[in-house]
Amino acid sequence: TEILMKNYANPDGKVREDFPGGWPADQVNKFIPAGRNEKENEAFNFVKTLANYRKQNSVLQNGSMMQFVPENGIYIYFRYNKEKTVMVVMNSNEKEEVLKTERFAERIGNYKSAKNIITNEKIAIETLKLPAKTTYIFELQ
């Protein structure tokens, strides 16, 4: 996952392949950026950012969860506690969608903006443009 390894089902011996690197006989070392290609580094950094965010934010570990019924191929849920609210938005459609967020007022409350936890970009949350087949994780601000 963190370096785009394939999830083989057959042959079974490849299901649990070792992560390349770390052993003297390994020809490549995927533990270091120089041992990964551009796509592998992108995936590695994405997973690392998600893991670190989760580790540093108790809201994702033990906060409450509220889900909204998916509509038009878009699924939204929130993790929240007294200190923080995180909004996860998934567009499963084959095309970009525009999402008006007033339906989620119960959880959004007085928040007006959000930080994309992957890019750190700050956005207004009244209306969201969601490219096809994307997932966003926003920390409401």
Can you tell me about this structure?
With 141 residues, the protein is of the alpha+beta class. It folds into 2 domains: 12-56, no CATH class; 59-140, Golgi alpha-mannosidase II (Immunoglobulin-like). Helices cover 20% and strands 31% of the residues. It has 3 helices and 8 strands. The strands form 2 sheets. It has a 6-stranded antiparallel β-sheet. A hairpin with a 4-residue loop joins strand 2 (74-80) and strand 3.
SSE blueprint:
Blueprint: H1 38-56, H2 58-62, E1 64-71, E2 74-80, E3 85-91, E4 97-100, H3 105-108, E5 113-116, E6 122-124, E7 127-130, E8 134-140
Antiparallel strand pairs: 1-2, 2-3, 3-8, 4-7, 5-6, 5-8
Structure summarized in a few sentences:
The chain has 141 residues and is of the alpha+beta class. It has helices spanning 38-56, 58-62, 105-108, and strands spanning 64-71, 74-80, 85-91, 97-100, 113-116, 122-124, 127-130, 134-140.
Task: Determine the number of helices (DSSP H or I, runs of at least 4 residues).
Answer: 3
Number of domain modules = 2
Low-confidence segments: none
Distance between termini? 30 Å
Class by SSE composition: alpha+beta
Give the overall form.
Answer: elongated
Rg (CA only): 18 Å
Under the CATH scheme, the architecture of the largest domain is: Sandwich
Portion in beta strands:
25-35%
